[in-house]
Amino acid sequence: MTDNQLTVGKIRGLSSTSSPKGIFNILAFDHRQSFIKMLAGKGKPDVAFDEIVKAKASTVKILAPYASAVLLDPIYSAAYCIAEGALPGRTGLLVALEETGYSGSDIGRVSTLVEGWSVDKIKRMGADAVKLLVFYHPDAGETTLGQEQLISAVANACRQADMPLFLEAVTYSIKPGLDKNSAEFAEMKPALVVETARRLGNFSPEVLKLEFPIDPIFNTDEADWARACEAVSQASPCPWAVLSAGVDYRLFSRQVEIACKHGASGYIAGRAVWQEGFSLPEGDRQSWLQDVAVKRLETLNAIAERYARPWRDFYPNLEKSIPEGWYRRYA
């Protein structure tokens, strides 16, 4: 449990992005290049900007009412979903800050911010929270230091704006030739996710968005899954939510249950919820999203609401944390 007390803007931001119980049931739809490839399908050279915007807005309009918040990108979705009324006012909004992909090398991945975009602009547009994704390995030397400097700068900007920071960390291999999808990396992954939670928690994000700490391709023992999630919870000084990382829905629902039973505060799910819909013609897609993806969200919500740890557990006595006359010193 953290000793830090939240400021009023961060309290509001976390309340706006979670359920009344304080659980994160968040739909992720800030995908860019991967989504464009999915939308293009086979034999289509490119996808028009307006088509991307339309596809995102129509999907958000169907799914957002069933999420506590939606995570969107600034390029194709955040402003457009607001302007078109696709995002209900009662649904929280997180907006991504980082550029898609990474620079550097495969064994030294460097995250960068979207050019012309900032925490201040996310605040001004009326969003509830900032999301920053970093590729992270604790032993990548100067690359690790550079990533931590970026995190520190963004965390400071969020403090100045009084907005919550959802910090997403994606692990990777720093050993030449070692694929992340290999058995060798799978053995390393639990310790990597735990150490990542411990290290990045020191930068005081309000929420960590983390990978499931076990690769289910190489380890199907759910007792090991539970122990690994418990270790992440013990290492993280702040609430954490499990991300879907493109796995199929059935597997992700099991991951959400185990993660939430062992300390997670909810989920942030993208492709596990909606990806199959984009292999269908547009008309069929809408029906599929309404019939299948909505039910997926409802089921994930029920799991998280039953088992997850409310974020307020990390910040006790918030009702006593605002002193009389606070507004005079609020800046």
Any descriptors?
331 residues; TIM Barrel; two-stranded antiparallel ribbon; globular
CATH homology superfamily: Aldolase class I
How far apart are the first and last residues' alpha carbons, in Å? Answer: 27 Å
Strand coverage percent: 5-15%
Largest sheet: 8 strands, parallel, barrel
User: What string gives the helices and strands in order?
Assistant: HEHHEHEEEHEHEHEHEHEHHH
**Residue share in helix:** 40-55%
- Identify the CATH architecture: Alpha-Beta Barrel
C-alpha Rg, in Å? Answer: 19 Å
Q: Strand arrangement, largest sheet?
A: 1-2-3-6-7-8-9-10
Shape: globular
Provide the structure class: alpha/beta
* Number of spatially distinct domains: 1
- Contiguous low-pLDDT stretches (5 residues minimum) are none
CATH class: Alpha Beta
Please report the number of helical segments.
12
- CATH topology descriptor: TIM Barrel
Number of beta-strand segments: 10
Mean pLDDT: 95
Give an account of the 3D structure.
With 331 residues, this protein is α/β, with parallel strands linked by helices. It has one domain (8-329): TIM Barrel. It has twelve helices and ten strands. The protein has helices at residues 8-17, 33-40, 49-63, 78-83, 119-124, 142-161, 183-201, 222-235, 249-261, 271-274, 282-307, 326-329, and strands at residues 24-29, 69-72, 92-96, 103-105, 108-110, 129-135, 165-170, 207-210, 240-243, 266-269. Helix 7 (183-201) runs parallel beside helix 8 and helix 8 (222-235) packs across helix 9. The chain is globular, with a radius of gyration of 19 Å.
